[in-house]
Write the structure tokens for this entry.
Amino acid sequence: MKSNKVTIRDLAKALGVSTTLVSFAMSDSPKKYRVSDEMIAKIRAKAKEMDYQPNNAARSLRSGKSNTIGVILSDISNRFFADITRCIEDQASQNGYTVLVGSTDEKPERLANLIKVFQNKGVDGLIIVPCEGAESSISELVASGFPLVLIDRSFDNINVSSVTLNNIKATSLAVNELVASGYRKIAFVSYKTSLTNILDREMGYRKAMRLNDLKEHICANEIDYSSINNELLSLLPKLIKQGTEALIFSTNRLAIEALIVIQSMGMTVPEDVAFIGFDGSETFAFNLYPKGITYIKQPIEQFGYEAFNLLVANIIAGGKTDIVNIELNPELVVKESSKKS
Amino acid sequence: MKSNKVTIRDLAKALGVSTTLVSFAMSDSPKKYRVSDEMIAKIRAKAKEMDYQPNNAARSLRSGKSNTIGVILSDISNRFFADITRCIEDQASQNGYTVLVGSTDEKPERLANLIKVFQNKGVDGLIIVPCEGAESSISELVASGFPLVLIDRSFDNINVSSVTLNNIKATSLAVNELVASGYRKIAFVSYKTSLTNILDREMGYRKAMRLNDLKEHICANEIDYSSINNELLSLLPKLIKQGTEALIFSTNRLAIEALIVIQSMGMTVPEDVAFIGFDGSETFAFNLYPKGITYIKQPIEQFGYEAFNLLVANIIAGGKTDIVNIELNPELVVKESSKKS
DNA sequence: CTTGTATGTTAAAACGATTTAGCTTAAATT
DNA sequence: AATTTAAGCTAAATCGTTTTAACATACAAG
């Protein structure tokens, strides 16, 4: 309770100087305030000796900066986002920032609320994984000039900095790999959504299929994300019966659930059907499958790293930097599940 | 940038009253300050109209409270902790708190640093998953009277509130289940550590084995957590060759890695060896194994829920509440892997 | 011998809330 | 009628910093 008793005033008194000087000396650039080197040394030494810890509330009240950023994502217990958060956290702590985290559960009203709460808390900027229906909140934020970086997903009609995967390339890679292995009847399993990243994955599939002169088969409207297991149980046998030779999935969860379903049906990969998953991490789970599973790999650490740096640049520039959209490169990790048996 | 322009003074001016009155009216208990009902209504209406958002830095500077709590755990990208964090987050947002999260990577010096950083940020209390070697930091914190709740792990020699699993019961359950299934040669696979929760799991195994008049076989010193896979590759065949009929694991990671190793060796569960895992979530991965896997289930949501409530009670009482140690009940989820084949 | 410039330091005003003590009136008690 | 009690409100101090403007002193240039 009585943790931070030592104030700047105590330090000043102990040294017989003004609080101003202490503040100057403790700042990042004491030279700017032309404090003498000996003074800097003297004050900093005393500060260390007395274990002086600046009061953040006071600092932030006066300066309007909090050295805190907010991270708003759909669900921290989703490993993909947890991994990204972890990277942001590391970057932040290395740069003197701390991180507030909030989950929206994909609900736009919760996003709006979190934005407000975090702004109240005085965060200097926000990193957001926007959910469906978040356009209004996001564009409002953009209009206000508040430092902001979107991650994983973006909106075509909003001009805002973002870090996303090159999703088109991701699924193109997958299609081409399957084609190279000799597959023709390749289906794309996705779900009903308006999320740009998922739609881009569909675009990538479409594009690659067309370039290969193959007929597209997209299952996107037929799946409700809340009851994946049942949906897949009826969808997958139908697909396979129709002659589908290979499956590409638009998300990690879809892929894992599908693998479980395929296994429970007594079928095997790639004998009965070839298989390419989408990595939102947790790929270790694939190791429990007897055959290696080919999957599209996202550079998870880079998401966090780039987003944080972009945001900080934005903060320092006072929200006046150019809009930057970083597209990260997917990588195809090829194992047995995409090869002709 | 110009987000929060409306201050309490603007409100007061607009209404022709004092800032004091506005502050009173906006507080949680305006009656305490005997503000008239009409005034409360009038002020709050105006506040809503002008979209007044109290400046948190100012509030926290003056009051010494921040309505922020810190959560320090070993790694947010570990699903068990991510799940708990998610629960704490939900509880917090329902109660007007926000959450700062930090990962220690099991390094005591990072823990010490995070405690300092978070205290600087003015958190009202801390929820900590202590790592090995954290005794000094924790006991220092306890001595200072700072509101604190440990989670998942605790220290026998430090008197501090905590929420932990009844680990002894957990492994006892597992042993008894295997014994009931007819297994006698049951080994406990753990690793070298001084963490109380892991050691308690060992104790539970010991106790149950003794009560069943069975000979203990504990593998605890032989495993280095950084190269689990290799270690297990040499350990497991040895155990099975020695006649071990069943395996109980002390952590989720150990269990999953072991299952992968067993599978890669061409052996099956429970035919070659019976198997009981330890749940730190991610149990869905078990579903990729052809046979159902028996595991010890922890009530994850409860960890977060209880810890948060304990902490808030502690904060409200100004760090003067009684020490409370909550032990949560494990549950054994019985599937095929623990049955005689 | 001014004047100008750089150097090192300080006094004092913010920042936006909370909180203490006190000031009016009106109502209740004696 | 005199005195206490309560209700409703306000002035002003305060929290611990940052930041602006200004004050000395020294030293160089004209």
In short: Chain A has three domains: 8-54, 66-165+300-328, 167-298+332-338. Residues 7-9, 19-20, 23-24, 27, 54-63 of chain A lie near DNA strand D (CB under 10 Å from a C1'). Chain A has twelve helices and twelve strands. Chain A has a mean pLDDT of 92.
